Amino acid sequence: MKGFTHGSQSKKPHFVLVPLLEQGHIIPMTDLAHLLASHGALVTFVTTPLNALRIDAVIQHAKESQLPIQFLPLAFDCAKAGLPEGSENLDMLRHGVQEFAALLELCFSNKDPLISYLREHETPPSCVISDEVQPWTGDVAREFGVPRLSFPGFSAFASLCRDISILHKIYDNVTDEHQPVPLPGFPHPIEVPKNKSLLNFYVPGLEKITEKMKEENSKIDGVIVNTFQEIESLYIDSYEKLTGKKVWAVGPMCLYNKGLKQTVSRGNKASIDEESCVRWLDSMEEGSVLFVNFGSLARCVPLQLMEIALGLEASRKPFIWVIKAGDKMPEIEQWLIKEKFEERVKDRGFIIKGWAPQVMILSHKAVGGFLTHCGWNSIIESICNGVTMLTWPHFGDQFFNEILVVDVLKIGIRIGVERSVVLGSEKSDEVMVKRDDVERKVLELMDEGKEGMERRIRAQKLGEMAKKAMDDGGSSHKNIELLIQVVEERAK
Ligand code: UDP
C-alpha cells in the first residue's frame, strides 16, 4: 500500500483528502480525487473499511485508469466510541445527535495512523483537503508544514449565509422562529427565518466538534467549493472578503464522470438494474419525467411517504420515485403491496427502493424535473443536466440552497416546507406536505406553458455554462490547474 509506483510522478504535489463519512461528502471528494489526479497530482484518499467497500466501483475505476490515487482505509473502532459495529457512515446511525457526535469524535483517532502513513510515504504530502467537520486534520497539515484547505460541501451562497448569520449573531434575540431575519452585508437583500437557518447543526451534544471546527476554520488556507464562477461569483467574492480565505471553485465535479459505468457507480451500488432503468427512461418522452429523491440522509416517515405516493399518482405525470425509509421500510413496502400501488401506476411510475443511480437518471433526456431535498450535490447535479427543481428542504444548508434555486437562479419552485426537521428525530405522525400540494406543485413544475418553459430554458442555459466551466480552458478547469500549481510552488 505504500507510495505510488509512478517514479516520474514523485515530484508531483501530493494531496491528502479526508471527507466527512457521509455519502454527500464522500462522493464529491472522490470526484475531486479523480480531477486532481487527472491533472497530474498524486492523491491519498482517506476512508474506512466499510466506506471503501461502498465505493469499490470508484476505486476500481481509478485503478483501471491508472490514476495515481491511493485509497487508504483506516481502521474504525466503533466499539471504542460506543457505536454499534459497522457505524462507519452517518447514514448507518439511528439515534440522532449523540451517535453523530460519537462518530465525528472517533474520526479524531485517525490522526496518528494517518501521520505515520504519510511519514513513510515516498512523496511527502503537499496539501491536506479535508471536511470542515474533520478539524483534527489541521494538526496533520501542521505536522508536515503544508496548507490545509477545507471542504464544507456547501455552495458559496450557503457558506456565506451561514458565516454572516454567525458573525452578526443575527438569531440571538429572535423569539419568533418563523420571522424572516435580514442577513447584513449579503450582496443583495435576503431574509432567512431562524427555523430555516443552519443553527440546527449547532445543537447540544456537538459542542466539542463545533468548537474545534471554529478554531481550525480560522486557520485554514482556503476553501474548496463544488461550484463554478459563472453561477456564484457574487457569493464567492463576498465570502472571500468576509473571511479573508481564498475560494477555489472547481466544479461541478460530477461532470468528471462520463458514460454509463461512471455515472451509475457513485457512492454506493445501485439497488436496481441500471439497464432496466435506462430502458424505462428511453420509453418516455423528452423532459416528461419527474425524478424524486431526497439524498442519502433525509428520511420521510411512512405517513409522509404515502402522501407523496398519492400526490404523484394524482398528478398523472411519469415519475421515478426513490424510497428510503430506513428501518420503516417494511412498513411502507406493506402499504405499497396492500394498495397495489405499483400496479396502479405501472404505466408511468418507476420505483427504486434504496440507492439510485442519480447522476445517470438526471442526465437522461427524459427527465424534466427533480423533486429534491436540496442537498448541494443534488442541486449542482441537477444544474449540470439542465433539470428544473421542486424544492423540499429538510435540514442543514438545504433551505439556503432552496433560496438560491428558486429566488436567485429561478430554475425551481418551492413545494412549501416551512421549517426544518432534526435529523433522526422525525415525528411519526408528522406530514410536512399533503398529497394535494404534492400533486399541485408537481403539475406546476412539469407544466410546459410559458412560465414552465422559461424555467426550463434558464436551467438548460445553466447546464451549458456548467459544462463549459469544466471543459479545457473553462473557469473550473483553470482553477484546478492553478490550485495544483500554487501547491507545487509552495512545496518548493
Ligand atoms: N445519491 C445517489 N443515489 C441516491 C441518493 C443519493 O447517487 O439514491 C448521491 C447524489 O447523486 C449526491 C449525493 O448522493 O451526489 C447526495 O448528496 P446531497 O448533497 O445531495 O445530499 P445528502 O445526501 O448529503 O443529504
Automatic annotation (TrEMBL):
Keywords: Transferase. It comes from the Eukaryota. CDD domains: GT1_Gtf-like. Pfam families: Glyco_transf_N, UDPGT. InterPro entries: Glyco_transf_N, UDP_glucos_trans. GO terms for molecular function: UDP-glucosyltransferase activity. Residues 16-253 form the Glycosyltransferase N-terminal domain. Belongs to the UDP-glycosyltransferase family. This is Glycosyltransferase N-terminal domain-containing protein.
